[in-house]
Structure formats: C-alpha cells, structure tokens
Write a structure and sequence with these properties.
globular, about 30% helix, about 325 residues, about 25% strand
C-alpha cells in the first residue's frame, strides 16, 4: 500500500511517498481502507520532533512513528476475531493517536474503541476533519467549561479546527460567542455563528474591558495573568494548545489561581474518541458542519503541511486517497 513515511525529523521535505506492507488487524482491531485523513497540530509536532513527543513516543534521534496522521475516515475491510462493534463494510471515523497513528496511508489498523460509525450526513472528507479537533472542542465546552445557555465564551485561535467546531457547538449550547483570529478569517467566523469577532492584530482582547464566563485557547501566547484578568468572577479558562513554557506556566500559576479564587484555570485533558457518537447528533441535526479549507491527495502531503505551517488555513486541511 502507499503511505507517507517519515524516516527523519524535520520539515515537510522529509516526508516520502513509499510502498509499505499493508497492516493486519490484531484480535481487537479493525483494518480500515482510508478514504480521507486530516492534519492536526500534533502531526506537525511529531514531524518536527519536539522533545516532548520524542519522550512520549520514543525515537530520540529518529522517529519510531514512521507513518503519522491520527484523524481518519474510511470503510472497514477486515476485523479481528474479538471485534464486536463493527462489521465489514461499515463506514467509520476516529482518532488513531492511541492506536499507533498511521493515518497518512491507504490502510490503517485501529483498536475498535478508537473508531465510531460515521454519520451518513457527513462525507468522508468532512468526517476526517472531526475526530481530534471536534472532540477537543466538545470536551473543552461541555466537560471542562460546563457551558450554559446565556454565558459568554471567547475562543482564541478561532479559525482553525478546534475553534470552528467550538464556535458552532457553543452556539448550539446557547452561548454568546466571541472569536479571535486574523482579519482574513473573521467573515468565516461570522458565517458559522460567532456573535463578535476580533482581529488580534488590531485589538488586544485582554485590554478592552470585556470579561467572559469561558475562554478556550489554542494559541497559548498570552500569560495566565492576562486570561485571569478577563475572566468573570467564577469564569473558566482552559488551554488546549500552545508552547511548552506556557503550558508549564498554566500548570503552576493556573493551579494556584484556581485554589485562591472561584475561577478555574487549567489544561484540557483530551480523551480521544469518547464523544464521537454524541457528536454525530450535531451533524445530523444540522447544528455543526466541519469546515474544510483544502483537500490534497496523499502524494502531496508535504504541500499540505506547508500550507498548514503558513497558518492561513480555515478549519481543517484534508488528505484524500482518491
């Protein structure tokens, strides 16, 4: 089968299209013929070889994960003898981050718990955009943020995968939503439901006098003190992504603030795939729609990463196996 293989850490140029062995499912796994996959920031971190990921996945000098890519959508082609959730021919989607990755390929094996049935209301391209970003957005809003109707929510870094899902879901939960991103993404944010939009290059949302009940942050360029200042007295701030120094600051200072004040500040503890069946209800009711910016064929994954690194994309970048 064809796959995008990474033998060394680096930029998009280290990625190679190769023929490798087709995987065989273990007793609790299914083999998925992949129709589409999508890029997440975690894929980029793995490709670069960030120190944290080298420690987590091994391969200090060279990557142990030769085929990256965690979000997939496709059709079940074979099942292990102990699989009970799926049958041959089922259309599925899921996040492979706990099942060995391997999404940038024509086939991948995954534990049955890493997958869910795809809603017929989604195309394979749309479904591939959902698993990691959609689940993070939902868990940030509902499980961690405990969003309620009438509350105010700010999404920092609103134009990417997590942000576009979070804005639509927050509106479905009845919140008043503010999206922060670059100017060229603001009209898209309005089109998916944002009540207010802020161009971060022209306005500092931590200095404009407005406060929020919930802030979700995928950028991580502001200090914990900045976010604390714009939280309502019992507000919540959760960091979903960002640089390691900011994550460490959040772990220490955020925990200290949470003990001293009725505010809650912390990091999102992502539980992969937990809410995929629940999320299908959003899609089937028409309340949420995956935002897909561009699609690239498997052979052009390097170009897809170059576009990802530019940061100009809106929603998700999808890889197709057509």
């Amino acid at each position: 089968m064809k796959a995008i293989v990474c033998h060394n850490y680096g930029g998009p140029d280290v990625l190679q299209l190769e023929e490798i062995a087709k995987p065989v499912p273990k007793e609790n796994e299914v083999l998925v013929k992949i129709h589409a996959a999508s890029i997440n920031s975690w894929d980029w971190d793995l490709l670069k070889g960030d120190v944290a990921n080298r420690l987590i996945f091994g391969g200090y000098r060279k990557p142990k994960l030769k085929v990256i890519g965690c979000d997939i959508a496709g059709r079940v082609e074979a099942i292990g003898e102990n699989v009970t959730k799926f049958q041959l021919g089922d259309d599925v989607f899921g996040d492979l981050c706990a099942s060995g990755w391997g999404g940038f390929a024509e086939y991948a094996c995954a534990h049955e718990n890493a997958l869910a049935l795809k809603s017929p209301s989604l195309t394979f391209k749309e479904a591939a955009a959902v698993p990691q970003a959609g689940v993070m957005a939902l868990q940030g809003l509902r499980d961690n943020g405990q969003i309620q109707p009438g509350q105010t929510m700010l999404m920092n870094g609103a134009g990417g995968g997590v942000g576009t899902f979070a804005i639509q879901m927050a509106k479905a939960f009845g919140a008043e939503v503010t999206g922060v991103d670059s100017a060229d993404k603001l009209e898209m944010l309005r089109s998916i439901g944002a009540d207010h939009v802020i161009d971060y290059k022209k306005e500092d949302f931590t200095q404009n006098g407005r406060c929020y009940d919930l802030i979700l942050d995928v950028v991580g360029k502001r200090s914990v003190s900045d976010y604390n200042r714009v939280l309502n007295p019992q507000g919540t701030y959760f960091m979903i992504g960002g640089p390691i120094p900011r994550i460490l600051q959040n772990l220490l200072l955020g925990a200290w603030i949470s003990k001293r004040e009725p505010k809650k500040m912390g990091l999102l503890l992502h539980e992969p795939n937990k809410d995929l069946p629940y999320m299908n209800e959003f899609f089937e009711e028409g309340k949420v729609k995956p935002i897909v910016d561009r699609c690239y064929p498997l052979a052009d994954v390097a170009d897809a990463f170059r576009y990802f690194v530019d940061g100009e994309f809106q929603g998700k970048i999808v890889i197709t196996m057509d």
